[in-house]
Amino acid sequence: MLTLGAATVERVIDLDPFALPLGLLFPGAEIEAIRDAEPWLAPHHVDFAAGNVLLGVQSHLLRVGGLTILIDACVGEHKPRPRRADWHDRAATGYLARLAASGVRAIFCGDAIHSPAQLRRPDWCSAFCADREQAVATRIALLEDAHADGALILPAHLRGPLALRAAPAGEAGWRPDFV
């Protein structure tokens, strides 16, 4: 459990670990490109011997003000999954300004970061990213903004710790400070 002021966040596991070959999740990626990050990627996030990225498929339960809020219902069971492209293209709604004004310092980033390996290589896009250029720009902006604000990042598939803070690592991209 993670405490954020008056709120708590709990994880509800659906599948863990969910192992995917590195090249399947990140087409064109090679394990050697992140070998220098092995001390903080292994053993929870990358199985270097097998060449797999280890994901957690999970929900987060946010409890605040007497409410329990389910964030991401995961794979789950018996539910339709209609595509809602109009939700992905929203901008300038004022939501982010209202969120910042509330004092919230945590970002539930969904699939913007599939694995902490993407902190070392923010240019790696998953096979599920429809617009690779936009995905990279979004991920980099998220890391920069979270670092500038001191915000926690809660990726949807993070195993082990619930959250991380992004710290710049120069030419090596970013490194996580796991929380």
What's the average pLDDT?
A: 86
The helix/strand class is: alpha+beta
Oligomer: single chain
Major sheet: 5 strands, antiparallel
The tally of structural domains comes to 1
Beta content: 25-35%
Q: Count the beta strands.
A: 9
Secondary-structure element pattern, one letter each = EEHHEEEHHEHHEEE
Q: Using the CA coordinates, give the radius of gyration.
A: 16 Å
Give the helix tally: 6
What is the overall silhouette? Answer: globular
In the CATH hierarchy, the third-tier topology is known as: Metallo-beta-lactamase, Chain A
Regions with little confidence, pLDDT below 50 for 5+ residues: none
CATH-scheme architecture: 4-Layer Sandwich
Overview of this protein structure:
It is built from six helices and nine strands, in the order ββααβββααβααβββ. By secondary structure, it is of the alpha+beta class. Strands 1, 2, 3, 4 and 5 form a five-stranded antiparallel β-sheet that branches. Strands 6-7 form a two-stranded parallel ribbon. Strands 8-9 form a two-stranded antiparallel sheet. A hairpin with a 2-residue loop joins strand 4 and strand 5. The longest helix is centred in the last third of the chain and has 18 residues. The radius of gyration is 16 Å and the shape is globular. It starts with a strand and ends with a strand. The mean pLDDT is 86. It comes from Albimonas donghaensis.
List keywords for this structure.
9 strands; single chain; Metallo-beta-lactamase superfamily protein; Metallo-beta-lactamase, Chain A; five-stranded antiparallel beta sheet; 6 helices; RibonucZ/Hydroxyglut_hydro; 179 residues; two-stranded parallel sheet; alpha+beta
